[in-house]
Amino acid sequence: MGQPVIYLNEQMKTGQVETIRQSAPDYIVIDATRESPQVIEDDIEIMLGWDKNLGQRLLNSETSHLKWVQSISAGVDTYDLDRFSEKGILLSNASGIHSISITEHVLGVLLAEFRGIRTSINNQANKEWTRETISYKQLSMQKMLIVGTGHIGQQLASFAKGLGIQTYGVNTSGHVTNGFIECYSHTNMSRIVNEMDIVVNILPLTEDTYQMYNERMFLAMKRGTVFVNVGRGPSVNTNDLIHALNTEQLRFAALDVFEEEPLPSDSPLWDMDNVLITPHISGLTPEFKTKLLKIFSQNLTQFLKDGTLAKNEITLHQGY
């Protein structure tokens, strides 16, 4: 093996790349976004960002020295976690970076619906001054079930509390988490979801969360529930969601992620008055690269010290 390589598949500022070089003087640091690197692939030990084609070659190589991948997203469902586990490759995510952005997005779409702002935008486009078409409710004192009580869920619960929203949580075991009135396990979710006015999905995609929002779950909800999905699209059965909206089992859905992205132009969701579609933007974060580098740098320091990671390590068999 030649000199080990840190392979950057996410474009960083020149100064940020230099910081990485100074932190790891024994490594060759390659910025693959700015140059066509002449690199011996098996020498890549660390990757920031995931090059799908290169990554697959490394996973299939018997002589690869890949030891750690830093994902740029919180979700890691696109990675071959079984293969990572087989080869003993560490994986860390960007959890925590998107907390404020996704929280603001969720509260923004809820306020737009509850205060009639969506309808007013449409009326403005038609130069219509009317109150008759505007329905409104008070967001304060609504019961919100946040499904996923990690960094993002806790941030959302904190901000929602400031608006007077009553926040409840769902996590794997039902363990108590700061900021929530009460938490429930996944297995008990269908029993308590009918008490909630708003359900927000923030879960990662795993075998357990795939298609968990299906006809059975929607029917378990209170009639007229508001549903927000900023987690993963495949957690929702789209046909069952459309049926729940058409029958008004769900009053409104704000959807930022979908089973198929981009959302096909012939999807019925585009034409539904009780749906707000955003193109997977809830996690867009100002100064994202700076925040990502902070996580990567902490992990790099720890990795160079003893081969472990300081934060955000994925438990591969759980998928998060």
TrEMBL record:
Matching Gene3D superfamilies: NAD(P)-binding Rossmann-like Domain
Pfam families assigned to the protein according to its UniProt record, in alphabetical order: 2-Hacid_dh (PF00389), 2-Hacid_dh_C (PF02826)
D-isomer specific 2-hydroxyacid dehydrogenase NAD-binding domain mapped to chain residues: 108-282
GO molecular function: NAD binding; oxidoreductase activity, acting on the CH-OH group of donors, NAD or NADP as acceptor
UniProt-listed InterPro entries: D-isomer_2_OHA_DH_cat_dom, D-isomer_DH_NAD-bd, NAD(P)-bd_dom_sf
Keywords (A to Z) from UniProt: NAD, Oxidoreductase
Residue span(s) of domain D-isomer specific 2-hydroxyacid dehydrogenase catalytic: 17-310
Keyword hit for Amino-acid biosynthesis: no
Family: Belongs to the D-isomer specific 2-hydroxyacid dehydrogenase family.
Protein name: Hydroxyacid dehydrogenase
Species the sequence originates in: Enterococcus plantarum
